[in-house]
């Protein structure tokens, strides 16, 4: 279940000013150790230590391959690649310099397989977070990932 909260856009310069948008509520962030513990509990046949070791080695190897100019695809997870952050454009090709025109690199990850956006949309269930103070209703949606018909509590129209 993916829980969400509503937040109104307060940026007066935005064309979306005043509109309400859903944002996911993150329950926790799992590190490699917690993920390894979780994997061990799923009877993978590997200990937590082995899972942790393999994942740490994978991270180091992905970094190494990215820095050597390769993309890395892990089926049902993502395709990892690097991108360049340009600081400004050069007037001509001859005027272009790495130090003057490239601000840095960034990691890109594009979900694949069962973690692709389309697959997540089919499997996701979302629910509005009920505020701790002041009541409010919870609207739920399953399946497509869109919740265009949320119920509105007449006593609390903003949720």
Architecture blueprint of SSEs:
Layout: E1 2-8, E2 20-24, H1 32-41, H2 48-67, E3 72-74, E4 78-86, H3 98-101, E5 102-111, H4 117-123, E6 125-128, E7 140-142
Parallel strand pairs: 1-6
Antiparallel strand pairs: 1-2, 3-4, 4-5, 6-7
Helix pairs in contact: 1-2
The neighbouring-strand order within the major sheet is 2-1-6-7
- Estimate what percentage of residues fall within beta strands: 25-35%
Instruction: Write the element-wise H/E pattern from the N-terminal end onward.
Output: EEHHEEHEHEE
Tell me the number of structural domains.
Answer: 1
Main sheet attributes: strand count, strand direction, barrel closure: 4 strands, mixed
Helix content: 25-40%
> Tell me, what is the CATH class?
Few Secondary Structures
CATH fold name: HU Protein, Chain A
Helix count? 4
Rg over alpha carbons: 22 Å
Contiguous low-pLDDT stretches (5 residues minimum) are: 135-159
SS class: alpha+beta
CATH homologous superfamily heading: IHF-like DNA-binding proteins
Given the C-alpha coordinates, what overall shape results?
flat
Q: Report the strand count.
A: 7
Compute the average pLDDT.
85
Distance between the termini: 18 Å
Reported CATH architecture: Irregular
């Amino acid at each position: 279940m993916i829980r969400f909260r509503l937040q109104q856009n307060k940026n007066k310069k935005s064309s979306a000013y005043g509109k309400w948008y859903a944002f996911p509520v993150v329950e926790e962030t799992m590190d490699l150790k917690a993920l390894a513990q979780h994997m061990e509990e799923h009877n993978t046949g590997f200990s937590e230590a082995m899972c942790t070791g393999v994942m740490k080695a994978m991270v180091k190897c992905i970094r190494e391959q990215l820095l050597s100019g390769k993309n890395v695809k892990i089926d049902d997870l993502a395709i990892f690649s690097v991108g360049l952050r340009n600081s400004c454009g050069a007037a001509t090709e001859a005027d272009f310099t790495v130090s003057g025109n490239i601000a840095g690199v960034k990691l890109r990850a594009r979900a694949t397989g069962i973690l692709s956006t389309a697959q997540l949309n089919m499997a996701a269930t979302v629910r509005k977070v009920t505020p701790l103070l002041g009541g409010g209703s919870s609207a739920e949606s399953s399946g497509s990932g869109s919740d265009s018909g949320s119920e509105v509590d007449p006593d609390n129209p903003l949720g």
